[in-house]
Input
Amino acid sequence: LDAASKSAKNECVNDLNLDEQSRRNDQYLLLVAKDMSFGDGMTALHKAVSGGRYMAVKILLDYCSDKDADEFLLPIVLMTKDSEGRTPLDLANQKIENDENPDDLSRWDENAGGKADWER
Output
């Protein structure tokens, strides 16, 4: 390749890298964004945990712990607090502690607005 072609190729590669970084930054922001429409300040992980959406929790945690993810993403997502000062882990522990019948999966129906993922 001549010098002009190499320069054009490098510009394209740089643009793709910037686009990829920008896309990843947007995804990170969505993972820690707090839903203020209900005033609860919950992130996607908070809502998945509180609704008993096992598959959603798994997908979110897998994404945050992906080998290509920023090393600080998972701790940030896990430590983000809702409007009542609870982390997703706090919500999960609270559900376990308050669960009178841990073997009855139908307990999630009321919270999730339907059957939990594992019952479908």
